[in-house]
Every structure is written in structure tokens, then in C-alpha cells.
Specification:
Blueprint lengths: L2 E6 L3 H16 L3 E3 L7 E6 L4 H19 L5 E6 H5 L1 H7 L5 E3 L7 H9 L5 E2 L20 E5 L1 E2 L10 H5 L3 E2 L2 H13 L4 E5 L16 H9 L5 E4 L9 H9 L3 E6 L7 H6 L6 H14 L4 E8 L6 H14 L3 E6 L17 H26 L3 E10 L4 E5 L11 E4 L9 E10 L2 E7 L4
Parallel strand pairs: 1-2, 1-3, 3-4, 4-5, 5-6, 7-10, 10-11, 11-12, 12-13, 13-14, 17-19
Antiparallel strand pairs: 8-9, 15-16, 15-18, 16-17, 18-19
Helix pairs in contact: 8-9, 12-13
């Protein structure tokens, strides 16, 4: 019985693909190893989105190559976005790799493993536009939290982004399949379901001819989840029905991840983003008005070609005005094959990084203001266990998403279990993260 180990890199959507490959291997009678050492095959499911992700993938391949030289593993299979994007380059430059699978071939993991163990070199690259395969999963997140992927691919074609060429056109999963998986996760004891796709707001538009996200949210709220968290809602697809559902359903967390990338009209147009600064300002104002306590997260790119000092200052002022509580800031990374990579008026890479650092400073002050406002407030926290470093417990409120935002460190007079919900009074901060103490009574 061969042993297979998996290394999953990149986003949560990639993790779901890894979990599906793990289930296929388990169902085929293969042994799932918890560590690479001693495995017959190590499968590295890679991200190839930006330079830092590519570097992380290559570092992992090289590290597994060293284990292979020492005889601690036999074969290396590389799957995912990096292999989809650079199949020829990987084949030529990385002899450590014994075989590859593209993003259209996750369902072929078992025959690929059989081939590689037979000293063949599988190169499986199925269509990235094919209908989504409905596959079982080995859920690897803690038992109280799980992702629910509702669509694959993307039709937005932002000028800086390679995802449509790596993941294919936008394809919504069938309604009944999404709900069947959600019920299975709910019945297994999952407390926090995180709805994900490259763009969840468009769910249903391709195969049902209309947006079905609000309807889907209502159905998820009927299950035994305690929290329903929404990730990657594109700003141009908000309508009143969606806002109504988010505002009215108690289980839906008042935390919205809405990537904007910029606010300047010229830069947004160059990015091929729909909407403008006026639209974004009105949208965020409407959301805050309708959803009390709303916490916003976004992603921002600095240094896109044509971004001058004036456009950058406008972006800084926009953040100060709108006060988005969470933001991932990235210096522009020119990616071959994208429209932005061909643009003139390039911003120096060092300058793009400098602007990103300045924007992080702006965002840090916004976060400090948020943390100050939270002092004395009592919030519901999902306990994630005991933290030996702080000699207390650690967890997240609605305002902290898993593996993205910070966490809350708190004390408790009674023993707590991971996955338990507890009310925590916020009393301080520690390295920019909130601290507090568990309280037993409603306040």
C-alpha cells in the first residue's frame, strides 16, 4: 500500500482541490501520510499567481528534491497553478519533478500516482473550462471550520491577473451539489462555513441565468452552522437583495471581503475593473448604513503602470476616508500573458514596494483606531484552543477570518474546548491584536 503526502500551497480554493485529491487517494486504498518523509509520492499542489507564490512553490519543490536525493521520498508530483502555467519550463528546469497535473486534471491524481510509481512521467493537462468535477473531500481544516467552494474559474479578466488562463471560465457548481455538500459538512459538526470562489457574487449567472447567492445564503442559514462567512464579493455585483440577506440573517457574519484593488478612476479603467471611485464610495456607505458593525476587508495593488504620485495619494486619502478595517496590500507584479504586463509608463519595482509600505502604514493607523474602538466591547469568539505562548486561549470573532486576519487572545476561568463559542470582553492589545477575558453572562 503506497504512502502519499500532500503539500497544499496558496489560497483556500487550492486547499479544497488538495482535499479532493486526498479523498481520491484514500478511496483508492492509498495511505495518506502526514509528513513527506517516508512517503512514496509527495504531491505539491502549487499556486502560480504572483512572484512570491511562485517562489514558495519552487522552494517546496527543491526541498522535496533534497529529501528525494536522501532516499526519504521516492517521487514528486506537482499539481495546480504553477504546473498549469509553466509546464514546459518546469519539465526542462526542474529534474526533481517526476510528473505534473494541471488545474483541469485534479480528478486524475490516482492514475498519475500509479504512473509515476511505475517510473513513467505523467503530464496530465485536461481542459480548464470543463464542467466542475464533483468529488469527495478529506477536510483538513479544524473540525469546526470548513470551506465551501461554490464556483470555479473567473470571467472578470482584470488586466493584471492570470487566473482566467489558469482556472478557466467561470463555472458555478450545481445548486443541489453545493447544498448536499453543505449539509454533509453541517452534519459533521462544522460550526463556521466559509463560502468561497474567485467571485461568489456571480454564483448562478452562468448556468441559471441569474444571481443565486442570496438564495444560497438563506439555505445555508437553515443548516446547523453557527457562522456563515462570505469571501470574495466583487463590488460591481452587489444588489439590494444581497445586502438584505447579509443584513437580516443572524448567522451571516458582518464581515465582507470585497477586493477593490484601487480607487482612482484611471487606474481602475486600466485594470479593466468595473465601477469607479464614486460607485465604491456609495457602495461602502450603503453597506455600513444597512449593516451595523460591518467589518470590511479588501485587497489593493500599488504601482500599476500609470499610477503616479497623485493617483497614489488619492488611494491613501480614500482609505483614510472609508476606513476599511482589513486590507491586503501588494506591490504590482507584472505577470507575463496579462494585459498590464504590456502597458507603458511602468512604475519602478522598488517604488511600487515603497508605496505598498506607505499604504500599510496608513492601514495600520486605521487598524489601531478600530482596536481602540473595540476596547470594552464584548464579542462572540470561536475558541481555537489554548495558546502556550500567551498562557491563555486564542480565537476569532466575526471580524477575523481564518489564516487571513489576526486573532484574539483571552483568558478564561474555566477550561475551554477548541470549537466552542465564548463571549469575550476586549481589554487591550498585543502586537496589534486584541486581548480580552471570557465572560459568562450576557452583557
Amino acid at each position: 500500500m503506497s504512502k502519499v503526502a500532500f503539500i497544499s500551497l496558496g489560497c483556500a480554493k487550492n486547499l479544497v482541490n488538495t482535499e479532493q485529491m486526498m479523498a481520491l487517494c484514500r478511496n483508492a486504498g492509498l495511505t495518506l501520510a502526514t509528513e513527506p518523509e517516508g512517503s512514496d509520492v509527495v504531491v505539491i499542489n502549487t499556486c502560480g499567481f504572483i512572484d512570491s507564490a511562485k517562489e514558495e512553490a519552487i522552494d517546496n519543490i527543491l526541498a522535496m528534491g533534497e529529501l528525494k536525493k536522501k532516499g526519504q521520498i521516492r517521487k514528486i508530483l506537482v499539481a495546480g497553478c504553477l504546473s498549469q502555467r509553466y509546464q514546459n519550463e518546469l519539465r526542462e528546469s526542474m529534474p526533481e519533478v517526476d510528473g505534473m497535473l494541471g488545474t483541469g486534471s485534479y480528478g486524475e491524481i490516482v492514475p498519475a500516482i500509479e504512473e509515476v510509481l511505475a517510473d513513467k512521467a505523467p503530464m496530465r493537462f485536461g481542459s480548464i473550462h470543463a464542467p466542475i468535477e464533483e468529488l469527495d473531500r478529506v477536510v483538513t481544516t479544524p473540525p469546526y471550520t470548513a470551506y465551501l467552494r461554490i464556483a470555479e474559474g473567473c470571467d472578470n479578466h482584470c488586466a493584471y491577473c492570470v487566473i482566467p488562463s489558469l482556472r478557466g471560465k467561470y463555472r458555478s457548481r450545481a445548486w443541489e451539489n453545493v447544498l448536499a455538500e453543505a449539509k454533509k459538512l453541517s452534519d459533521s459538526g462544522v460550526k463556521e462555513i466559509i463560502v468561497i470562489a474567485q467571485d461568489i457574487t456571480r454564483y448562478g449567472t452562468d448556468n441559471y441565468g441569474r444571481r443565486r447567492l442570496p438564495e444560497l445564503i438563506r439555505e445555508l442559514c437553515k443548516l446547523n452552522f453557527h457562522w456563515v462567512r462570505l469571501h470574495y464579493l466583487y463590488p460591481d455585483e452587489f444588489d439590494e437583495e444581497l445586502i438584505d440577506v447579509i443584513a437580516s440573517e443572524p448567522k451571516v457574519l458582518k464581515y465582507l471581503d470585497i477586493p477593490i484593488q484601487h480607487c482612482n478612476d484611471k487606474i481602475l479603467s486600466a485594470m479593466n475593473r468595473r465601477g469607479d471611485k464614486e460607485y465604491l464610495t456609495k457602495l461602502f456607505g450603503r453597506l455600513r448604513e444597512r449593516i451595523p458593525g460591518l467589518v470590511l476587508r479588501t485587497s489593493i495593488i500599488t504601482g500599476l503602470p500609470c499610477e503616479g504620485e497623485a493617483e497614489f495619494e488619492e488611494l491613501c486619502d480614500f482609505l483614510r476616508e472609508v476606513k476599511i478595517e482589513r486590507a491586503g496590500v501588494f506591490p504590482y507584479s507584472p505577470e507575463e500573458g496579462t494585459a498590464a504586463a504590456k502597458m507603458e509608463n511602468r512604475v519602478d519595482e522598488e517604488e511600487a514596494r515603497r508605496r505598498a509600505e506607505l499604504l500599510v502604514d496608513v492601514q495600520s493607523r486605521i487598524m489601531d483606531e478600530y482596536n481602540e474602538r473595540m476596547q470594552g466591547e464584548t464579542v462572540e469568539v470561536l475558541c481555537e484552543g489554548f495558546d502556550p505562548a500567551s498562557m491563555g486561549y486564542v480565537g476569532r470573532s466575526y471580524a477575523e477570518s481564518v489564516d487571513i486576519d489576526g486573532r484574539i487572545y483571552f483568558s478564561s476561568e474555566r477550561d475551554l474546548d477548541a470549537g466552542e463559542f465564548v463571549r469575550v470582553r476586549i481589554t487591550g492589545t498585543m502586537d496589534g491584536e486584541l486581548t480580552g477575558e471570557a465572560v459568562e453572562t450576557e452583557e
